[in-house]
Structure formats: structure tokens, C-alpha cells
Design a protein that fits this description.
The chain has helices spanning about 30-35, 35-40, 45-55, 70-100; strands at about 10-20, 60-65. By secondary structure, the protein is of the alpha+beta class. A two-stranded antiparallel sheet has the order 1-2. The longest helix is centred in the C-terminal third of the chain and has 31 residues, at about 70-100.
């Protein structure tokens, strides 16, 4: 089950999910059993109780990169693109010279 990544200062959240200890997301059957009034639309204010009940078994897992890795990532990406550009340039020169001969 996907979740909205939390607002983390000095971090770049990549993904967030709600899972149990085994890494499994809650099923619709579990949510129907845990929060029956939310799925039918008949309950008012039952959201907090549902969240509290689900939170006893499930937790949020967030994958993120620390802000300190921003510049190393920029350098790696620039180097990768520069290498690919040089390789494609060399390939182009080789291809044109081969065709002219």
C-alpha cells in the first residue's frame, strides 16, 4: 500500500509504504474488518480510530536519500552523461570516417 512520504527536512524521500513486520501491505479484507464504517461511507470521525487500530499492526517504511548526497549525485550524473556523450561522439567520428573511405 503506497503512502504519502513524510515531510523530512534535509532529505529526499523516494517512496513510502505501509507494511507489517513481514513486509506485507494491508489487504482490503483486513481494512474492511478493521474499519468497516470507512469503506461503506457511513461513519463520521472514524478515521482516527481506524488509523489507531491499523497502526497497532502496520507501520510506514520510507526510502530516502540524505540531503548531503545531492552534490555527489550531481557529479556522478554529470560524469555519466559526459562519458556517454564522448562515446557517442567517438562512434560518430568513426562511422563518418568509415563511410567516407
Amino acid at each position: 500500500m503506497a503512502a504519502i512520504p513524510p515531510n523530512m527536512s534535509n532529505a529526499w524521500p523516494l517512496s513510502a509504504s505501509i507494511v507489517d513486520r513481514a513486509g506485507h501491505a494491508p489487504t482490503s479484507q483486513y481494512l474492511g474488518h478493521a474499519c468497516p464504517t470507512l469503506l461503506t461511507g457511513q461513519g463520521d470521525g472514524g478515521l482516527q480510530g481506524c488509523v489507531a487500530h491499523v497502526a497497532t499492526r502496520f507501520h510506514e517504511v520510507v526510502n530516502y536519500q540524505p540531503a548531503g548526497r545531492y552534490w555527489p549525485f550531481q557529479i556522478y550524473e554529470t560524469a555519466l552523461f559526459a562519458l556517454v556523450a564522448l562515446a557517442l561522439g567517438a562512434l560518430s567520428v568513426w562511422w563518418v570516417r568509415r563511410r567516407l573511405v
